[in-house]
Design a protein that fits this description.
Blueprint: H1 21-44, E1 50-53, E2 56-57, H2 63-79, E3 82-86, E4 89-93, H3 95-98, E5 100-102, H4 104-108, H5 118-126, E6 128-131, E7 135-137, H6 139-153, E8 161-165, E9 168-172, E10 177-180, H7 182-192, E11 199-200, E12 203-206, H8 212-226, E13 231-235, E14 238-242, H9 244-248, E15 251-256, E16 259-264, H10 266-279, E17 290-294, E18 297-301, E19 306-309, H11 311-321, E20 328-331, E21 333-336, H12 342-348, E22 352-360, H13 365-378, E23 382-383, E24 388-390, H14 391-395, E25 406-411, E26 414-419, H15 424-437, E27 440-443, E28 470-472, E29 479-485, E30 489-496, E31 501-506, E32 510-513, E33 517-520, E34 533-544, E35 547-558, E36 563-566
Parallel strand pairs: 1-6, 3-11, 13-20, 33-36
Antiparallel strand pairs: 1-2, 3-4, 5-7, 8-9, 10-12, 13-14, 15-16, 17-18, 19-21, 22-30, 23-29, 24-28, 25-26, 27-28, 29-30, 31-34, 32-34, 34-35
Helix pairs in contact: 6-7
Pfam family, one: VanW
Keywords: Membrane, Transmembrane, Transmembrane helix
Organism: Nostocoides australiense Ben110
Length: 572
Amino acid sequence: MSTTRPLPTTPAQAPRRRRRWPWVVASLGVLGAAGYAAAALTLGSKTASDTTVGGVQVGGMTHAEALDAVRTGLQDKAKAKVPVAFGEQQANLDPATAGLSVDYAASVDGLTGASFNPVALYDRLTGSVERDPVLAVDDGKLTAALTEIAETIAVEPKNARLVVKDGKAVVTDAVDGVAADVAKTADAVTTGWLKGGKINGALTAQEADVTTEEAESAKREVADKVLSGPVTISVDGKDFPLAADAIGKTLSFTETNGDLVPSYDENALVKAVRAAGTKAGVLKEAKDAVVSSANGSFHVEPSVDGLDVDADAVTAAVEKAAVSDDRVATVAAKAAPAKFTTKEAKDSLPTGVISTFTTHFPYAPDRTHNITLAAKRLNGAYVAPGETFSLNAWLGQRTPEKGYRGAPVIYNGRLTKDYGGGISQVSTTLFNAIFFSGAQIDQYTPHSFYISRYPEGREATISWPNVDNRFTNTTKGGILIQASVGPDSITVTFKGKKTWDIEATKGPRTNITKPQRIEDDKEDCVPQSPNDGFDVTVGRVFKQGGKVVKTDYLTTHYIPEDLVICTHPNAG
């Protein structure tokens, strides 16, 4: 700021001759000031002699030169991915995706400009300036990019676990997890970007919902008490022990809202109580009536009612008793009536043949042996009204221990050998007896390619455990299954109470496909003769009193049976 001061007054003097030298001095002063100003303007148009922006040297440059130099010097670094380390894990942050860029104009702003301060002018000639680049950060994009990385970095905590194993409660310790702190990492990125090297992201520990201490507490307060000894089950004034190990097998602990909550497998616990009570003679299983046939007459083995527990009350009673001092669970008794009573059995007795069917087969020792073995097992099976029959369940798995031999079966459209090969003949014959009895067909699977000794569309293969032949007895009475095997045939007969007259219809073959020729040099190759593939639909016409009541349709798709020529000398 300049201040104007008034000049001091002096006595009047005689006029003197005007002198010119002050004007000269003044002129020289003006010229000096002009030069100073010119120097200030010249120096102000350039940066200080030793100036860097983000490590880029821009000393002695004009504003435009400095702007270009900074842009050239930083643009590659500004585009390069930024390594961000989270402990031992590392991720690369893309600046463009993360909304990171350099404001080049702002980065060089103020480095040039005129100043008449002698100190400032001196600094322009000799001074040093270090400046960080000015960043333009889109906070939303940066947060989104770091959040995406955080999802890959996060390690979920593992809750402590409490399990019962071999009659003992075992605790598995909790393991804390880690998560990236997005906000703190964003600060580190904006501070460390363009400075080189990796940026250390911020991590926070994530405590497990169920700690080891909480699991140990549940072990002491619940599991150890449950497993400390047997629980006495009191039913109708009679007691029997339920072993601690039996209870422990039904006990589990699950995390609920941060707590380990005990729970029991109710079905398994009721089953254990029933087994213990039956063994002790307190409980008694019901026995269904059994129908058998001999010498053309039927015999009914009477049903026997049993004594059970109130299944709905078992879990609560045992759970409470297992952590109590007296360890006694009182459970109400409950009658267990037979599902198939003597009266029902007598009322259901067959009155005659309701269906019968015979299929023929070429003799082959192993195959015929398997057919005979399965037929003997099937013969005499009795299916009560409303009961479902499963051929797989009735026969069980076909194994050499049960006497079955290896014989041809179809697998993936090719013949191969397996134990029980041939019993599809039994299944197909049974299926036709089911078909003509009018009983409800629940599950059947035709062979993949057509076998000429079977009726088209009315045949059923079988394979353990899933390819089954099942039906439900929806007739008016029980069904006695009789099966017999001759030298080249098997017959299955259903005796029961006639409910339906069944007729079969068959449509034409459609969608015919031709077989291929296959040469196989494997030793286990089984030769095949060619047959067309086709689709066929059969009808199942239900009649009563000579009138059609309904018709069901079954459509079957057969693939072609390829011609397989075995070239290995030991094949076949």
